[in-house]
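REQUEST ID: PR-0412
SUBMITTED BY: lab tech R.K.
PRIORITY: routine
TASK: structure prediction, single protein chain
INPUT:
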Amino acid sequence: MSTATAPTHEQIALIGAGPSGLAGARNLQKHGVPFQGFEAHGDVGGLWDIDNPRSTVYHSAHLISSKRTTEFAEFPMADTVADYPSHRELRRYFSDFADRFGLRAHFRFHTRVLRVEPVSDAPGTRWRVSTEAADGTRETAEYKGVVIANGTLSEPKRPQFEGRFDGELLHTSDYKHAELFKDKRVLIVGAGNSGCDIAVDAVHYAKSVDISVRRGYYFVPKYVFGKPADTLGGKRPLPPWLKQKIDATVLKWFTGDPVRFGFPKPDYRMYESHPIVNSLVLHHVGHGDIGVRGDIARLAGHTVHFKDGSARDYDLILAATGYALHYPFIERELLNWQGMAPRLYLNIFSPRFENIAVLGMIEASGIGWQGRYEQAELVARYFRAKASGSPKAQALRAAVQGPPPDLSGGFKYLQLERMAYYVHKDTYRAAVRNAAAALADPT
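STATUS: complete
OUTPUT:
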């Protein structure tokens, strides 16, 4: 039965038309699972459409992973696309992907999901989905299941500082163009990938640029031996301790020791936190364009007092403090939220409910959109198997109830909110592929 003719209680409600939502739509379509997509914006692409009011990209934004490790395998990016595409190229890529497979017809655009709730407490319950269209029209319907794919990088975490700041205090989600910094004394708080990118932008406009850091980082160049760094490496995986040792040594050959530039020495080993894919920030620190400061103690007027006892005046503080997982339309307990993130089997399936899944709640070095596509393939195969009464679907549910697999790959990740759903790419993708293969039709 096609999506166009299936009643809602025989459809899956898919939330979001960004990269994960498009992966979900393509796989539900491919496996013949009726579904209805919802997207609050007017087109596909999610945060990579800078015109989307919820987009957090800025005019200079590019991928930090190369196109060949990021693209959907069934829809490679053109050879003419840059190694590290800009948001403009990526917006076009997702639009072309949607065109190639006719995915827009499956979505109701300008339609925000207000609430998702189970009809009953039964594991196999239907789900009640309430939506609001752009004209204010509200609807509620029951769906067979729900796939949440609204992304992880739209809800800014705005820090609270002691004291009062009389200048501008913004988050990177507010940043679009470096003209914001013109003739200002700028402090960027946080040296994650966005913070470092924006600091490099700022040096061309600002009167001065400093970056405030709490901990040390490992900085990875985008190119090694003239090739994208994430395309290099042997085919045979190394033990974690050996990979950490070798890669940390190679990094120092190309970027030097960030400690000599004023950054703290990392108190963790490489890959135990997401690396910073940016060597330009070290270039500008080495040229005196960016100053490295410690953690903030308090604010007073235009003065920022740091914990090391130093102080300096600024006109603008930009918090590069990341984003929080944000599923505002569903109660946390329904997603088995524990601590800093939902606890889901393979970061996808709820232990409590059979007909709800989350796509895109993964972070890993090099996971790419293909990693999310593989999640979506697993979900689509599961819903198809469940609809046909296949015992394979019950076997997956039994696994969901069992002890969770170790997805760390042997690495001891930092216990931080942004690392709460971090996985090891190869370990994770192997687990997802194996689960999907177990649901495949016999050949």
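NOTES: The mean pLDDT is 94.
REVIEWED BY: pending
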